[in-house]
Design a protein that fits this description.
Layout (H helix, E strand, L loop, with lengths): L1 E7 L5 H11 L5 E7 L4 E6 L4 H9 L4 E8 L9 H29 L2 H22 L5 H31 L7 H24 L5 H30 L3 H23 L3
Antiparallel strand pairs: 1-3, 1-4, 2-3
């Protein structure tokens, strides 16, 4: 068995990970892909030399560079696929659940921060769902789902950004800061529990590492919405909510374009 290590300079989230997996999945001699998103490292475990691996990585234009290639013996995956799938399902359930909760209460409270955070949660859930579905689905079907999902995310985010701009310009009442804070606190607790569960697994596998990064980002966004809610209370102004909403919508747009890469 051979382990070839690549430095992928532009790989920093699950979208790039999925992109690489879908690009390389047709090569039968590849036995496993090990990702270290924090250090932007990809280890390809394969049975024989294959120059097509490096060529396909370069086609993605993610700044791939081969570091080394070594022969290894008695290779074993660090964690069973069943265990990883269980952890990912937990995170998927939490993200999708709070997408519904935050969207509902965001509309009730007229908080753009909550609405934007709900879309960010839905984008995360989409990536986890595609990762879990990747095992048994045909490549062309996954690409179609990725393309449709990416366009839907962009459309919703653009509508959200337009609404934020409209609220900046015209007179609007302040959002319900109590709902903003309470819902975001529960989302923060849920994401913190998710992060604890994922870190407890001590897995170096790609999906688990990627989930840790996404969930950590969600924690930061939750704290941001809570702070915005407190500033709404203190200033009796709509602007803190609009500012956090605008920022999170931009994050959603960026994530949507990354998802669209999966469809190419």
């Amino acid at each position: 068995m051979i382990k070839t290590t690549y430095k992928i300079s532009k790989m920093d989230c699950p979208s790039e990970e999925n992109l690489i997996r879908m690009k390389l999945e047709g090569l039968s001699d590849i036995k496993n892909l090990e990702f270290d998103l924090e250090n932007r490292i990809l280890n390809v475990i394969h049975s024989e030399e294959n120059k097509e691996i490096a060529l396909k990585l370069k086609e993605l234009k993610l700044g791939s560079e081969k570091i080394e290639s070594i022969v290894i013996k008695d290779y074993k995956k660090s964690e069973s696929a069943k265990s990883q799938s269980k952890l990912l399902r937990i995170v998927l359930f939490i993200n999708f659940g709070f997408f519904i909760i935050e969207m509902t209460f965001g509309l009730i409270s007229e908080s753009m921060g909550l609405v934007a955070d709900s879309l960010d949660m839905s984008a995360d859930a989409l990536v986890y769902g595609l990762s879990l579905w990747a095992v048994g689905a045909a490549t062309i079907r996954k690409k179609r789902v990725a393309r449709l999902s990416g366009y839907v995310q962009i459309i919703l985010a653009v509508i959200g950004l337009s609404e934020v701009i409209r609220r900046f310009i015209v007179f609007e009442g302040i959002p319900d800061f109590k709902i903003m804070i309470i819902v975001s606190v529960f989302a923060l607790i849920a994401n913190t529990v998710s992060l604890f569960v994922l870190q407890k697994s001590k897995s170096n596998e790609v999906h688990i590492k990627a989930s840790q990064i996404f969930t950590a980002n969600d924690v930061i966004i939750n704290i941001g919405v809570i702070i915005a809610g407190l500033f709404v209370l203190l200033t009796q102004s709509k602007y803190p909510d609009l500012i956090i909403g605008f920022g999170v919508f931009l994050i959603v747009v960026k994530g949507a374009f990354r998802i669209l890469k999966l469809s190419k």
